[in-house]
Task: inverse folding
């Protein structure tokens, strides 16, 4: 935040305006079939929607006319005023091949309400649609829908991990309690309550609200969003057995190097078909042109693009792997070949469609290069390779290749907030007496309501009004589970000059949802000091104006009917301001967004005065490398000089 930067900027405002009219996007139907439900199947007694009847087709006299008719019936129909479908002229088909159409939000159906203890799943539709005519309000609407769904999924998964850890603590680490797959459990809970997206329509092309470069730690999250509907298979498709025209259509593939004959050069992928492998990933049988392989071949013939998600090895991942959405590809060639193991395999050549933003996998590789050899990758633009001057665990890069502004160099870097001295004399200085690891019955846990706020990996379980961490008066070691935000940076960051927002902050690492980022640091001023300070103008940060985004992280009210938002410990209104005019840290350069990817969580650890908490920042969602970090300042106006991120 430059001290002289007071210009306003259009707010990203990814949150839909409640006063705005409801979006009713346009639908283009494709009469494709019902997909097989994922296991577990609906129990006996739960009715299964009947498959759609095949639509009548015109006489086909040649392969060319057959494909033309199939393509027309699949992609070239629009409902007329009577609700019937009329075929578009041939001149419109080429433009439809790249067009997108927004799918409306499903209407609420009380009959689908899931009663606890029952298992009823909405089957996946086989109706294929494209999403087109996406206006800016449509983009904001769907992005916010995706955002909320991802926050809920990650919150559920972290909650499941936390519950497992509590059981193991009760069992004294003997693992008497069976460990559950938290990613599967979170997905199952959301599915049972009808919270999976894009089940009523199967989308060809981009999923509205999912951006190229979005990262995912688990494949089940791809299923929850409808980005890739197969928990294990690498090819997602409408099966021929359910297709109205009797042929399968592929919609997405995962490229993860699972087959020894795969070749991946980024924009061009030689993708090996599925089938014929043993449990060790060795090809032992000839592949057949069936199922997903046939779906890819048919999509090639019809010119239908597929979504490509790459699975990458990632040391910072939960399971050593991460998935990134890389955009749309066309299948331009297929052939049968002999693989390295001597068995017949099908190969498909996928070419990335032009005029898309940079692939997320390329951005991740670029960020890795910056972490190791920044000057080799970008020899120009770096003002300093450590804005923090060794005051953080990792250097903070300062990059500006736009103009000669060096404003961040004029401030003293402040890694942690400075409070008035009397704040530390308030209340008892008693801490926990734990010698080893703290448990949920220790003194500090009791201050938090009987359990710690973090799991064993330092991930915030749910947002709270205030969190008490173990501090200097506690007997526990630095490795204690309840010491997270006081340890400083865990990732590498870059303050950069932005054409859109003035100054911005981005990470060179992938940040997992619920992870600690940094403190919002400044010099705390009391009310009396603020009155004197503002006589010559107001350039302060007011913590009370930050939006309560912590309420979103861990909000499980859509899944558990008895869920209640944490209300303990209570915090009085924050009646202080922070001066960042001379001393500040990297958080002060974060841009504003009314639907931010970073939230403020109040934390105490070095004193017990609840009126003066630390402003700790945590990730609300998985944040890919090089994506700008944003905060919801509540009101981003001229008093802050904050520019909002815009689409």
Result:
């Amino acid at each position: 935040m430059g001290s002289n930067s007071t210009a306003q900027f259009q707010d990203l405002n990814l949150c839909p305006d409640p006063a705005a009219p409801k979006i009713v996007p346009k639908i283009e139907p494709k009469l494709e079939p019902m997909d097989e439900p994922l296991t577990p199947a609906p129990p006996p007694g739960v009715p299964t929607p009947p498959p759609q009847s095949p639509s009548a087709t015109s006489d086909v006299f040649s392969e060319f006319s057959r494909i033309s008719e199939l393509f027309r019936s699949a992609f070239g129909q629009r409902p007329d005023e009577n609700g019937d479908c009329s075929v578009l002229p041939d001149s419109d088909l080429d433009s439809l091949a790249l067009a997108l159409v927004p799918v409306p939000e499903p209407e609420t159906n009380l009959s689908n309400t899931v009663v606890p203890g029952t298992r009823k799943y909405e089957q996946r539709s086989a109706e294929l649609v494209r999403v087109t005519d996406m206006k800016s309000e449509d983009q904001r609407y769907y992005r916010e829908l995706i955002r909320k769904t991802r926050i809920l999924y990650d919150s559920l998964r972290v909650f499941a991990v936390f519950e497992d850890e509590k059981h193991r603590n009760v069992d004294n680490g003997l693992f008497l309690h069976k460990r559950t797959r938290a990613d599967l459990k979170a997905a199952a809970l959301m599915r049972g309550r009808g919270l999976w997206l894009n089940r009523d329509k199967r989308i060809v092309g981009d999923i509205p609200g999912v951006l190229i470069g979005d990262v995912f730690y688990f494949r089940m999250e791809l299923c929850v969003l409808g980005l890739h509907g197969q928990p294990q298979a690498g090819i997602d498709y409408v099966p021929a057995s359910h297709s109205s025209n009797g042929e399968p259509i592929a919609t997405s593939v995962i490229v993860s190097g699972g087959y020894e004959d795969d070749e991946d050069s980024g924009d061009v992928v030689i993708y090996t078909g599925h089938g014929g492998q043993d449990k060790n990933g060795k090809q032992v049988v000839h592949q057949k042109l069936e199922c997903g392989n046939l779906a890819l071949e048919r999509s090639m013939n019809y010119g239908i693009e597929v979504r490509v998600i790459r699975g990458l090895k990632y040391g910072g991942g939960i399971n050593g792997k991460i998935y990134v959405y890389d955009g749309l590809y066309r299948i331009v060639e297929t052939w049968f070949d002999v693989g390295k193991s001597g068995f017949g395999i099908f190969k498909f050549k996928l070419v990335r469609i032009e005029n898309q933003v940079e692939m997320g996998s390329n951005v991740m590789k670029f960020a890795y290069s910056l972490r190791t050899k920044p000057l080799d990758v970008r020899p120009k633009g770096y003002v300093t390779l450590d804005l923090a001057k060794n005051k953080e665990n990792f250097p903070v890069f300062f990059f500006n290749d736009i103009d000669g502004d060096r404003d961040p160099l004029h401030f003293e870097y402040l890694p942690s907030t400075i409070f008035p001295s009397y704040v530390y004399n308030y209340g008892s200085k008693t801490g926990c007496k734990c010698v080893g690891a703290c448990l949920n019955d220790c003194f500090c846990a009791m201050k938090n309501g009987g359990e710690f706020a973090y799991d064993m990996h330092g991930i915030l379980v749910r947002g709270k009004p205030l969190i008490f961490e173990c501090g200097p008066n506690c007997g526990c070691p630095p490795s204690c589970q309840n010491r997270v935000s006081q340890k400083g940076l865990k990732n590498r960051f870059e303050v950069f000059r932005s054409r859109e927002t003035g100054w911005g902050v981005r990470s060179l690492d992938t940040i997992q949802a619920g992870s600690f980022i940094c403190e919002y640091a400044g010099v705390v001023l009391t009310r009396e000091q603020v009155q004197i300070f503002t006589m010559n103008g107001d350039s302060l940060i007011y913590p009370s104006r930050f939006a309560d985004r912590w309420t979103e992280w861990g909000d499980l009210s859509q899944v558990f009917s008895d869920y209640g938002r944490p209300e303990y410990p209570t915090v009085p209104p924050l009646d202080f301001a922070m001066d960042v005019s001379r001393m500040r840290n990297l958080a002060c350069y974060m841009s504003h967004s009314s639907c931010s990817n970073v939230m403020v969580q109040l934390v105490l650890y070095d004193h017990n005065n609840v009126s003066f908490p630390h402003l700790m920042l945590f990730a609300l969602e998985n944040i890919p490398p090089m994506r700008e970090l944003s905060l919801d300042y509540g009101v981003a106006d001229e008093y802050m000089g904050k520019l909002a991120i815009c689409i």
Observations:
- Residues 1-18, 20-119 have pLDDT under 50 and may be disordered.
